[in-house]
Amino acid sequence: MMNIILASGSASRRSLLAGAGVQAQSIQPNVDEEAAKQAMRREGVSVTNQAMQLAEMKAVKVSSQVGGLVIGGDQMLNLDGEAFDKPVNLDAARKHLKKLSGKTHTLETAIVIAENGVPTWRHMARPHLTVRPLGDKFIANYVKACGPPLLTTVGAYQLEGLGAQIFSKIEGDYFSILGLPLLPLLDHLRIRGVLEQ
User: Fold this and answer.
1) What is residue 158's predicted lDDT score, i.e. its pLDDT?
2) Which of 55, 86, 164, 191 has a Cα-to-Cα distance from 94 of 20 to 30 A?
3) Catalytic: 74?
4) Which pLDDT score, from 0 to 100, does residue 9 have?
5) Distance between CA atoms of 127 and 50, rounded to whole angstroms?
6) What would the pLDDT profile of 28-47 be if each residue is shown by its tens digit?
7) What count of Cα atoms within 13 Å lies in the side-chain half-sphere of residue 23?
8) CA 75 to chain centre
9) What pairs with residue 118 in β-bridges?
10) Looking at residue 12, what is its pLDDT?
11) pTM of the full structure
């Protein structure tokens, strides 16, 4: 059985894999994401390509150190070409939600598999989420109710919980919204013989 490694500390991605019966070891890639993002933004790299390059960077970094099949993922929120990073504090989370209010954004959800330091498979999912118009009081109460876990997501929402109240429309795969395009990944693992057909 091929060793599967998740090049991420993301609890959400790990739990999605485990829930689907995929045993994966988790290794932090130790990539300076902030520096990489700043450099890409200076060069005018699109939000979609920023997510894909970061996913590849993580997968390649870990796979050049350990054997096996390494999965790297990254997710960025794209609002009309502007990339949103995870909010740094709850005040920033409130500002995120106010800016997203009444608009549709895209979650650029990239996944890359690398082996021996070389990318062997890539996939990009782009779910579109429409945030209903949010009142200031709702935003304040929502941020207070959810607290610091909001700081772990690019949009300052958790769809699997109270975040469901934020949206009027969602187009795309639920797993991809949570940060991992699980169905295409499982399909690829079956093709590779890692999972049973």
Assistant:
1) 85
2) 55
3) yes
4) 81
5) 16
6) 998 999 999 999 999 999 99
7) 3
8) 3
9) 115
10) 85
11) 0.92
Point out the catalytic residue in the list 32, 74, 85, 136.
Answer: 74
- 101 by Cβ neighbours in 10 Å (0-12 / 13-18 / 19+) ranks as middle
DSSP letter for 100, please.
H
Tokens of 159: 């769809």
Residue type at position 173: D
Q: Among 58, 159, 153, 156, which Cα is nearest to 113's? A: 58
Please tell me the total number of residues recorded for the chain in this structure.
Answer: 197
Q: How far apart are CA 77 and CA 169, in angstroms?
A: 16
The owner of tokens 């990318």 is 119
The b-or-e profile of 6-25 (16+ CB within 10 A means b, else e) is: bbbebebbbebbeeeebebe
**CB contact at 8 A, 157 and 87:** no
Residues of the chain with pLDDT under 50: none
Q: What is the pLDDT of residue 159?
A: 87
Confidence (pLDDT) at 1: 61
| Under 8 Å between Cβ of 44 and 64 | no
User: Encoding tokens for residue 114?
Assistant: 């690398």
β pairing state of 118-125 and 4-6: unpaired
